[in-house]
Amino acid sequence: MTFQDIFKSSFLENIAGVSVIDMAMALILAFGLGLFIFFVYKKTFTGVMYSSSFGVTLIAMTMITTVVILAVTSNVVLSLGMVGALSIVRFRTAIKEPLDIAFLFWSLTAGITLVAGMIILALAGSITIGIVLLLFVNKKSYLNPYIVVISCRDYESERAAREFLQKQARRCVVKSKSAQKGAVELNMEIRMREENTDFINILSEMNGINSAVLVSYNGEYMG
């Protein structure tokens, strides 16, 4: 028996290793889990601009992973060729939100565990991960950092503004300060006591305060 005969025999035997019913069930379950992951992503999104295409990508990633693992497990020869083909793929899209990486790995893991026959693990794990993300990501905290940009007229107005903020906020730290003749600009990081921003209106109306701006801050951008 030649190598070609062995290859044809192995190919023909393994190609029928996965039935149509198994493939259909795997894809349906993968689509359902992908929809659940997309729902959790939509509910827990906290970035600057929501991308619906990334949500659809999560559904497609779950189904594509399922198809790939099905192909790998059904044919050894095909699995070797697929490993070589996938090894040359390079992704250049930058991940802006760290949480997006977790969703990508979640989609991959869901597809792999489904094809491995661990359906209960895939369902229970996805539900648990979804509940954890919904509870912790959407949890609002008044201790989130904010940046207050204050334009003052002189030193006295600057001191009055700082004393006012120290009384209103739980924590108040000067991040930067620029001064020139007749104008002082302060950038201060504060942690608010409660979700009430009326103090900015009062601050802007104080004597010597030209303007006061409050923006949220996550360490990477302001918005």
Relevant terms:
four-stranded antiparallel β-sheet, 4 strands, 58% helix, 17% strand, alpha+beta, elongated, 8 helices, 223 residues, disordered C terminus
Structural class: alpha+beta
Strand order of the largest sheet: 2-3-1-4
Mean pLDDT: 78
Q: Helical segment tally?
A: 8
Assess the beta-strand content as a share of residues: 15-25%
Low-confidence stretches: 219-223
Largest sheet: 4 strands, antiparallel
The CA-CA distance between the termini, in Å, is 70 Å
The counted number of beta strands is 4
* Order of helical and strand elements: HHHHHHEHEEHE
- The 3D shape can be described as elongated
Radius of gyration: 28 Å
User: Helical content, roughly?
Assistant: 55-70%
Commentary on this structure:
The chain has eight helices and four strands, in the order ααααααβαββαβ. The chain has helices at 3-15, 20-44, 52-74, 76-86, 98-115, 119-137, 155-168, 198-204, and strands at residues 145-152, 169-180, 183-192, 209-216. It has a four-stranded antiparallel beta sheet, covered by helices on one side. Helix 2 (20-44) runs antiparallel to helix 5 (98-115) and helix 3 runs antiparallel to helix 4. The longest helix has 25 residues, at 20-44. The N and C termini lie far apart (70 Å).
What are the SSEs and their pairings?
Elements: H1 3-15, H2 20-44, H3 52-74, H4 76-86, H5 98-115, H6 119-137, E1 145-152, H7 155-168, E2 169-180, E3 183-192, H8 198-204, E4 209-216
Antiparallel strand pairs: 1-3, 1-4, 2-3
Helix pairs in contact: 2-3, 2-5, 2-6, 3-4, 3-5, 5-6
